[in-house]
Amino acid sequence: MDLCNISVIRSLMADAGINFRKDYGQNFLTNRIIPEDIAEGCTDESDSLIIEIGPGIGCLTAELASRYKHVVAIEIDKGLIPILDKTLAEFGNVTVINEDVMKVDLKELVDKYSCGMPVSVCANLPYYITTPILMYLLESGVKFSSITVMVQNEVASRLIAAPGKSDYGAITAVLGFFGEARRLFKVSAGCFIPAPKVDSAVVRIDLFKTPKYTPKDEKLFRSLIKAAFEMRRKTLLNALSAKLSLDKEKIREAITSLGFDENIRGERLSTEDFVNLSDVLSQ
Fold it and tell me: Over the stretch 217-238, which tens digit does the pLDDT of each residue have?
């Protein structure tokens, strides 16, 4: 069954008596090469547990199940479950869970299904909730090997941006704390039904096996990033002094002690720079 064939997609949904749900950001792939390439590139470890978020009718799920040890697919739309039961019937290594991923205890799920295997995430994320899901995964405490996501192309540019670039933002700096992101390939809007208004891109995040950065005060580190980018048009000094309960002169001394001009903007600091700044201020 070609799960990327438009006629097949429409037939499966008609038989189940359901339509595409805009509130869940449902856009199903119609180019079979895309799920093949996503599955192939999501991890280098074939003996893996893959957690898939939003399997839809299962086109990517089938490709993952063909390559990896076990797939746990988390689908929020209960109307798609009967379709998945049908389209994935041939695979004995797939578990479908009808749940909102933001309410799933990921540590508990991984403990139940990983059996010591490496664990990676693969997902076609709805545009409206991309950042919350990504942060939920990163902050879950699960030691994922990699997280591969298809997101809006603009978001992909933000995830991989370098300090000082216009796309660089708070999510970029925070992501750099957990791992390194790279764009795998772009996906045009015409590869979906219904077609979204913008193009997408697939990004793979390889998580650090051991922490690359260990700030003395992680809460302060996060607060610095949040403050810097909430007021990114201001200098870092003014943004931090306005948003945080810190003495302005102490902030100035901390910034200049790291070799930066006191008028530097936060968008020019790397993840490591924010860690160093938080360490100085924590003293």
Answer: 999 999 999 999 998 889 999 9
DSSP H helical segments within the chain, as ranges?
A: 6-16, 33-41, 59-67, 81-87, 106-113, 130-138, 153-160, 170-178, 218-230, 236-243, 248-257, 271-282
Residues 88-144 pLDDT 10s: 999 999 999 999 999 999 999 999 999 999 999 999 988 889 999 999 999 999 999
Judge if pTM exceeds 0.90. yes
User: What does DSSP say about strands 70-75 and 146-152: parallel, antiparallel, or unpaired?
Assistant: unpaired
- Could you tell me the two tokens for 239? 């943004």
Provide long-range contacts, Cβ within 8 A and 24+ apart, for 104-109.
104/74, 106/51, 106/136, 106/137, 106/140, 106/141, 106/142, 107/140, 107/141, 107/142, 109/51, 109/72
Contact of 57 with 29, CB cutoff 8 Å: no
Strands 49-53, 28-29: pairing is unpaired
What is the pLDDT, as a whole number, of residue 283? 85
* HEC per residue, 47-69: CCEEEEECCCCCHHHHHHHHHCC
d(C-alpha 4, C-alpha 198), whole Å:
19
State the pLDDT at residue 173: 97
- Alpha-carbon distance values, 127 to 76, 198, 220 (Å): 15, 10, 29
